[in-house]
Amino acid sequence: MAILSRIRTWFSKFDLRQFLPVLTSKDGIDFEMAERSDIQDLLAIERDVYAGTVPWTYTHFVREIENNPNAVFLVAKKSNHTVGFIGLRVMLYAKELHVTNLAVKTSMQQQGIGDSLLQQAVRVAANLNLGKITLETPRVTDGAQGFYRKEGFESTQILASYYDDGRDAVTMEKKL
Ligand SMILES: CC(C)(COP(=O)(O)OP(=O)(O)OC[C@H]1O[C@@H](n2cnc3c(N)ncnc32)[C@H](O)[C@@H]1OP(=O)(O)O)[C@@H](O)C(=O)NCCC(=O)NCCS
Asked: What is the mean pLDDT of each run of 10 residues along the chain (176 residues)?
């Protein structure tokens, strides 16, 4: 009983932000933990990459940045301007780190920033001794699936009509 109660206490006090590795800069890009003041920049990147339609609202970002102890957002900045971000949520019981959102400003894509953001995710997962990174992405031929495959992810499942507009999603995972 005592052990169970200690485990419960540990889970209830858990805060993913305490398990972040030191975020090191790479190729002139700085990585930081996102705060509420970053949300307008995150929304601007969403409008840019999704051509005006914003999958995540201000409230979604606040929930994951401030209210959910199992979640964190990291931003990539170049000369103090936000150029990309990744959202991470830990699923302790499943021993996995879930990518909730990832985007790089269109004009900054194909320069290794998406890769660096995922590398930060791998470091977070390693800090917590998690076995895999998982995500959902739209099931389209020209989407982000090719990127994730290059990053070592494999498809695991199709989720029919997963998105509000009826598109299917594919779940992917990278074993660590
Ligand atoms: C997917 C995304 C995050 C990739 O970011 P990026 O900074 O351009 O990626 P990188 O430059 O780090 O690319 C890493 C590798 O993946 C490749 N790659 C990037 N996008 C790709 C794509 N759409 N299809 C296939 N390969 C891709 C790159 O060529 C590079 O390969 P290399 O190592 O052989 O040179 C970015 O295109 C994006 O924000 N897309 C719109 C939002 C989105 O779809 N997010 C994911 C939703 S789940």
From this structure: 67 83 92 97 95 85 96 97 98 94 98 97 95 95 91 97 91 97
What's the chain's Rg over C-alpha atoms?
16
C-beta separation of 113 from 103 below 8 A: no
Q: What is the DSSP string of 41-60?
A: HHHHHHHHHTTT--SS-HHH
The best mutation among 73, 77, 142, 147 to test binding of ligand 1, ranked by most ligand atoms within 8 Å of the C-beta, falls on 147
User: Cα dist. 34→17, 31, 65, 128, 167 in Å?
Assistant: 10, 9, 7, 20, 29
Strands 81-91 and 71-78: antiparallel
